[in-house]
Design goal:
single chain; alpha+beta; 5-stranded mixed β-sheet; 20 strands; globular
Amino acid sequence: MQECRDILAACAAELSGSIWFNAVWLDQVLEDAPTRFNSAFDRWRELYASAVRQRDEARVVVDKPTATNDERKRAKGQVAEAEREVDLLLNRTQQPTEPDFYPYRYLAAEGFLPGYNFPRLPLRALLEAEITTMVDRPRFLGLTEFGPRNILYHEGRKYKIERCVLPTGGIEGRLKKSKFCLMCGYFHEDEASHADLCDHCKTTFNGETMHFVPTLFEMTTIRSRRVERITCDEEERTREGYEVATHYRFATGSDGQQTVDSGKAETKGGDVVAELTFGPQANLWRVNRRWRRSEQKGFTLETKTGYWSKKPGEEGPRDIEGTQYLVGVQPFVRDTRNLLLVKPDIPTGLEDEESFLASVSYALQRGMQVLFQIEEQEIAVERIGQEEERRLLFWEAAEGGNGIWTRIMEEPTALGNVAAEALRICHFDPETGEDVAEKDTCSRACYRCLLSYSNQTDHPRLDRMLIRDYLLDLKRSITTKVAQGRDYEEQYEWLQEKRDPNSSLEAEFLSVLYASRRRLPDRAQFRPEKGIYCEADFYYERDGLNGVAVFIDGPSHDDPIQKQKDSEQRTKLEDLGYRVMVIRYDKKLEEQIISCPDIFGPGI
C-alpha cells in the first residue's frame, strides 16, 4: 500500500488536475483488483467452453455410424473450426499476427492492465471453408459488418453471418436490459433500468422520452457459412444496412459521483455560443436496432444454437435449426472512450436546425483534425438527443485517446482556434468571414470542406453558408469551466464578496486572473484544520490531495515577527501535504501568475 502511495505522490502535480482521482481512489482499486482480475477472464472462459462444446458435439456426429456423408462432412468442418479456435485461445498458433490471447495482451485489451494502449479485443467471425479462417473487426465496425444475416466477402468468397457463439450456461448470461433516454441519449443498465428519471438530464421517463429494451445481446464471436456467388439483385437488397443507435453513460468515481467536467464558450459580450461537457473514460454503447427497411424491432434469435432468423420477407429455404426463439433481440457492443458533448447555440428563426447541426458537427470535426494534426478516423461525431437536449457527441475513436478534449476544456482559446480552422476549411476568411472559394467550385459543400465518404447519408443536409456566422462567433469565444455549480462570472463575483474587503491586493489578484480568463480559486479565506493557525487568502482544490493555499502578502508581512510566524505555519501546511503559494506585493502580479500555469492555467 505504501509503495502505491509513494508512486501517486510522485505524480501529485499531474493528478491535481484530474477529475477522476480522489482520496479513496487507491483503496477502491486495490480492494476491487481480485474481483476484476477474475471477471476479466469471463470472456475467455466463455469462448473456450463454447469451442470445446462444439468440438465434442461434432465428434459425436463424425463417429455416428448412421450419419450421412453430408452430416459427417459438415461435422468434420465444425471440429476443425473448433480446434482452430481452441489453439487460438490457448495461444498455440504459430502466426505472429495472432497474439490476442497472450495473457498480458489479453488483460490489457480487457481493461484490467491500464496504460498499455492496446486496442480492445475485436469482434471475430469464424469463416467456414476448407481451412477455418478468422476475420477481426473493431467492435463498433463489427456490430454492423457482422450483423445478423449480413453478407461478408473474404478472399473472393461470399459468406453469410448466420449464428453467434452462446455462453455454455445459456443465452441468459449474455442478455441485458436497459432504459435509453430519448432526450439526451443516456443509458441506464440493469439495476439503473428501474429509474424513473434520467440520471443525466433528469427527464421524467414515459412512453415518449424513454425506450426500454429487455433483450440486449452483447456480441462477441460469430460464425458464418459459405454461400453461392452473389448476384446484382441480392447485393442491392443486402446493401440496405441496419439502424444503429449510440448511447453513453459517464464513468462513476469511487465516491459514487459522475466523473464529468462542464464548461461554456462565451463571446466578450457574454453570449454563450456553446455548452461543453467532458466525460473521461465514459461508457459508450452502439446498439443494432433492426434492419433499416423492416418494421420489426430487433432480431429473432434461436436460443439453443445461436442462429439468427431470416429477415421477414427474405426468400429461400428455411435454414435455421432449433425451435426455441427469442424475439426483439438487439445486438450491441460497448467500449470505454473519452467523450465531449457540445451543445451549440442554434440561431433563432432557423428553418432547418438539423442541417445546421450536421454542418457544424463535420466542420468542427475537420477543424480538430487540422488543428491537432490527427487522422480523420481518430475522431468520430454524431448528433444525439432531442429538443433542448440535442447535442453533438464527439468521441475519441482511436484506441488510447489523444488528449484533445482536455485541451479544449483547459485552454480558453482552443475551441476558438478549432472554429478558425473550420472556417478556412469551409473556404471562408477566418477574420472577415468572406467567401474565398474559387468560382464554381463549391456552393454548399464539397469534398475539400464538409463532404467525405463517411458522411454520405448527410450530404443533402450539409451547407457551409448556413454555419459561417456561427463559426465566426465561436472563433471569438473564450472557453471557461463551470466551477462548483457556478459559472465563471458567478465564481468571480462570489470570490470578490468573500475576499478581505480591506485588501486591495486581493482584489487586484482576482482581477488579473479574471481578465486573462485563468482558473479562479475555489474558495476564499480558507482556514485549515489540525492546529494550523493561519488563514490562506485563496484556496485551489486538488482531487485526492490537499490543495494549494495561496497567500497574498502585503507590506505588513515584511515585519520580522510576522515573517517568522508565517514561515512556521506555512511549513506546517506543507508537512500536511498542502502546496503553499505566496503572491508578493513588491513583484508584478502578472509575472507571478504566469510562472505557475499548473495552478492558474495558461490564460489568454
